[in-house]
Amino acid sequence: MLNCMRITSWNVNSIKARKEHVLRFLKEDAPDVLMVQELKGLDFPANDFKEIGYNSAAVTQKAYNGVAIFSKTPIDVILESLPGDQNDEQARYIEFDTNGLRLINIYLPNGNPVDTEKFTYKLSWMERLYERLKTLREDKIPFAIGGDFNIIPEDKDCWDPSVWENDAATRPESRALYRAMVNLGLTEAFRATDTRAGHYTFWDYQAGRWQKDQGIRIDHFLLSPEIADKLESCDIDKLPRGWDKPSDHTPITINITL
Predict the structure, then answer these.
(1) pLDDT of 188-244, one tens digit each?
(2) Of 73, 89, 190, 192, which one has the fewest beta carbons inside 10 Å?
(3) 178 and 151 in contact (C-beta within 8 Å)?
(4) What CATH number should be reported for the domain holding residue 229?
(5) How far, in Å, CA of 130 to CA of 126, rounded?
């Protein structure tokens, strides 16, 4: 019987505010790997997660950004920043090996407002990410990349496209760079298993968006061909978004055979 590896991505919107949520999720769902984004601070409570059987590693930044990983198996960190710009100090990238698999956890820049340098930074960051993924493909290293991409790939991935028109997540330049990554031969895990509209990973805190199910799908997994061939399922778990004082994102999980 084949073993299955369960890998989850979740923007927790502050590890300080959501530590108990993460601990609860790890205990109840027990993924083999959890990749989280938007830690929002330098402090990272690694010992709390070690106590429940998870190794961890984090790339932190004061007040903003930050990514972390939790794994039941030992972690070998490959990169703690995205190559291509030595002056970029934002904590948005961690690449690592665990259980014989190369994984990448990203918190891709939001990019708004689009008439500022924030959008320019988003596009340049995506160009650098494309180059890194291209290198991995050329080097024939199988990988899965997951995280908060801050990209709405298609209009059917948001509840009302007119509301998101001209947002950095839907701008043609952003979508083109996302497609370029997919066109490296990668598989978008969720769309490989479900092509319907109306599936979201983020609901704004304002205007009752969660209660009305007015969301967007911006958290993704992209898989190299070797990993895509082993994909069993990709599911969005809406339950944590309904917890008390939740993150505005909810987890997305892939199951792959080993």
Answers:
(1) 999 999 999 999 999 999 999 999 999 999 999 999 999 999 999 999 999 999 999
(2) 89
(3) yes
(4) 3.60.10.10
(5) 6
